[in-house]
Specification:
- This protein is α+β, with helices and mostly antiparallel strands and 84 residues long.
- It has helices spanning 11-18, 31-40, 65-68, and strands at residues 2-6, 44-51, 76-82.
- It has one domain (2-82).
- The longest helix has 10 residues, at 31-40.
- The radius of gyration is 14 Å and the shape is flat.
């Protein structure tokens, strides 16, 4: 299972979602909450990573994103789970 979610810990995520009527009332879940949901559904968590740190105007900094991935501060995150 690959669970991608918008990151509630990222300021840019809140800014973008506040401008989109469809997302305005969305309830964001954090990485720890997503992990608990997957575990409660019977998955074993095999990892997580953050994605999308720099918007287009700062794209020249994107080479830094692999080093930032463990920080959980990207605009989105991925939690990977597997059924035993």
């Amino acid at each position: 299972m690959f669970l991608f979610e918008n990151n509630p810990w990222n300021v840019g995520t809140h800014l973008v979602m506040s401008r989109i009527p469809f997302d305005r009332d969305a309830q964001l879940i954090s990485v720890p909450q997503a992990g608990r949901l997957l575990r409660d559904a019977g998955f074993t968590i095999s990892g997580s990573t953050s994605l999308f740190f720099f918007p287009r105007p700062l794209k020249y900094l994107r080479f830094l994103e692999p080093a930032l991935a463990p920080t959980r501060l990207g605009a989105q995150y991925l939690v990977v789970g597997a059924k035993p």
